Amino acid sequence: RCSCRRWGGGLVQVGDSLRLSCAVSGRTFRSYVMAWFRQAPGKVREFVAANNWGGSNTYYGDSVRGRFFMSGDNAENTVYLQMNNLQPEDTVVYYCAASTSRPTLAQSSTTRQYQYWGQGTLVTVSS
Predict the structure, then answer these.
(1) Regarding beta strands 18-24 and 59-60, do their DSSP bridges make them parallel or antiparallel, or are they unpaired?
(2) Percent helix, strand, coil in the chain (nearest 5)?
(3) 52-71 confidence digits (pLDDT tens)
(4) Residue ranges of the chain with pLDDT lower than 50?
(5) To 10 degrees, the CA torsion angle through 105, 32, 7, 94?
(6) What is the DSSP letter of 31?
(7) DSSP string computed for 68-102
(8) CA 42, CA 1: separation in Å to the nearest integer?
(9) What pLDDT, on the 0 to 100 scale, is given for residue 57?
């Protein structure tokens, strides 16, 4: 199961950075395909990033590519989302997710591939 929390708080200014964490319990996060999604109220969840830890590059959504970076820490069994150059449109709830279905890179951006979801954390970017 995936649990997510904010590191450093969720209130930031435009252009600032913030790192979110997702602590995985029960088994190593590397046994899952892990992903980050985000969702604004009343809208569907948007794909942010995914990684199968197989040595390939992380797959990023178009809206965050070049600004957001996904990583994992084996010792802490935690997955991170480093968010840089934050903009007002990044003010949404962020979720981590874990998949046992071994989705391909093309499949990894769809929410139905993920069985475990964190509760989400709100990021607020003010100008």
Answers:
(1) unpaired
(2) 10, 45, 45
(3) 998 777 999 999 999 999 99
(4) 1, 5, 8
(5) 50
(6) G
(7) EEEEEETTTTEEEEEE-S--GGG-SEEEEEEESS-
(8) 25
(9) 78
